[in-house]
Design brief:
By secondary structure, this protein is α/β, with parallel strands linked by helices. It has 5 helices and 8 strands.
Amino acid sequence: MTDHGALPAGDQGGEPPPIRVLVVDDSPADRRLARELLEESESGSWVLTMAEDLTRGVALASGELFDAVLLDLGLPEATGLETFRRMYAAAGNVPIVVLTGLGDRALALECVRQGAEDYLVKGQAGPEALARTLRYAVERARHKRRLLAAEARTRLLLREREGGRGPYSPPQPPPPDDLRGERADRDGARRRASPA
């Protein structure tokens, strides 16, 4: 089941574009709950795509653009970390928020260690908590992408400046004219300064 319905919340004037979320949960009631929680939130708007199993979720995550994934760890094809690992491999740089009925803190910590943005227990996350968690996950991912892009640009600039000469060193200012009207050229040789 795929549902591409937008969920507006509040006045859209000047607000950022809707956040596109892939919801992967085998329970129709829990998918509906996720939709209702985000409808009730007052922080932005959402475009939800629903997947009823991991196979469909992985296919969607591999082929479409999403800002975040909301993933149930207890799916028919896999449970726990296996579910997370398979989605993480398919989702690329898309942040994953785990929303599950499993209240296992050790599992929660392991998911975060392996790359999950956050872990929420079903029934313990209200509309604002879920919306805030998703929004923060998306913003952290955007910030990380900007940092990585800036780092790549910096590396490229440094490589261009090095021109194959080895590590970057800042350019040295030219030596000053001495009192005899001589000037050292780039090679260090002394040359007579030409009259201006």
